[in-house]
Amino acid sequence: MNDLRLRFCDGEQPDLHLGSGLHALGRLPTGLGPVDAEQPWLLQLCNDRRGIWLTVADELRGVHVNGRPVQHVAMLRAGDSVHVDGGELLLMAAIDPSKASPAGSDARDTAAPGHRLVLRGIGGSHHGRSISLEQPRRIGRGGDVDIRIEGQAIAEQHALIEMVDGQTVLRDAQADVMVNGYRTRQATLQVGDQLAFDVQHRFVVEGTPLQASAGNSKMYAQPGFHDDADEFPHPPRRHWLGRMPWLLLAALLLGIALSGLLMFGAR
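RE: above sequence
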């Protein structure tokens, strides 16, 4: 299960630990907060093996997740910001990534062998784009950065993501970066971590399979394969003899033979 907690950013409610099962939120005298199953609810959060699912009540309008409107159901991840009823709810990982020691990172998901880490945009100007983290990536609004993002709170050289001792780390941040809901200027990144720069610019760390690793390089050593991690191998071209419809050709030859036998046999 996902070990997450929900922070009520207005400060009127303590953090809600989202254990496995269903959690309902409704209107309380102090604002939005957890309610019992028999009380009217506005939002429900279900924590199961698939992840965290947000359900919005039919009568509720104006719910946004990371600035995008949600009408009925949405899947959430650590670091997501939910705006409802004029307030903000922040989904946070149970462990602050900036304080997690490398030795304790075994409990978090790492990239499996034969995979690489990529940064995929899920909000802002880089939405839908995947950027490999196999080389250092400078982030900021300057003209010589690798990932350029705009914003008043973004410095020209805002942060750096690079490999250090076999781990992918966020470092040299000039201002706070939200990692899984925590404000930090340095952190060790793992698969599933969400990074937010100036609210709207959001990225998630993902592990994607390599197209050819050392263990299976012979499998792809065939004509038509290009050693490019972003391109799938093309199937080898078959020789023209292999493409010949032999069954049709055999039927044609048999027809010619029978026609000749009938013609010459009648004489």
